[in-house]
Amino acid sequence: MSIEVRDLTFSYGGDRILSGVDLTVGSGDFVALVGMNGSGKSTLLKLMAGLLAPASGTVLLDGRPLTELPRRAVARRVAVLHQSLPPVPGLTVRQLVLQGRYPSRGPLGMLWAPDRDRRTEEALELTGATHLADRLLDTLSGGERQRTRLALAVAQRTGILLLDEPTAHLDVRHQLEVLTLVRELRAAKGLTVVAVLHELDHAARFAERIVALHEGTVHADGPPARVVTPELLTRVFAVSGRVVTDEVHGTPRCLIDHAVGEKQNLRM
């Protein structure tokens, strides 16, 4: 499945967030959206999911405008991993993940859904969350919450997975675990993945393509080795640094020296 964004513009409260964005994500792609806070990454992801309506421009899902598709039809094709789990006291992980079956089952199907839906159990197994199934949501750690969110998205059985900061508030170990899991799910299920990521090194290591947003427009789009440059660090992230090649993974790594405009303390 593919998503195409054509000349997309979005404003909020009179402020222009995105302007003239063009982007095509082909079937099976793994694309990382990067940029500073406020650059429009999460907004673009929500527009691609049909959760927001653009001021102008079009989002196409497999060649059809999202505006022509019913909400449930979009949800059967596109799963969104939001930044946080809903605060639902007393809900277990299995009960939450079962809600991912709603787009396929519908309200009546959910009413008669068994406690242990086969595809729900498969989603828990694929994301390594089976051992969490009977835990209450409010007892989970950060890493466990991310696995649960992924299981919820996987339970929808869609071809496209949109991830809004899947590594937020996680330590380095759990960041790597989550991104490795996403990569494995993509390979196992042939998913198309678009992820908002803050760590540029993670984006370069796990995604095959990086789209860098700057002031609401696409500043760069391409393979990590071509996109991640000292010029990108300066222009998009307002830092000065060097880019080297990781000796193990062969991907770009950023060595940050200082913020652009920061006065340098030359005393040792």
Automatic annotation (TrEMBL):
Under SMART domains, the record lists: AAA
One GO MF term attached to the UniProt entry = ATP binding
InterPro entries for this protein:
AAA+_ATPase, ABC_transporter-like_ATP-bd, P-loop_NTPase, Siderophore_ABC-ATPase
Which part of the chain is the ABC transporter domain? 3-240
- Localization, UniProt: Cell membrane
Its membrane topology is listed as:
Peripheral membrane protein
Q: Among its keywords, does the record have Membrane?
A: yes
Assigned keywords, A-Z: ATP-binding, Cell membrane, Ion transport, Iron, Iron transport, Membrane, Nucleotide-binding, Transport
Gene3D superfamilies linked to this entry: P-loop containing nucleotide triphosphate hydrolases
Q: Which PANTHER family match?
A: IRON(3+)-HYDROXAMATE IMPORT ATP-BINDING PROTEIN FHUC (PTHR42771)
Q: What is this protein called?
A: ABC transporter ATP-binding protein
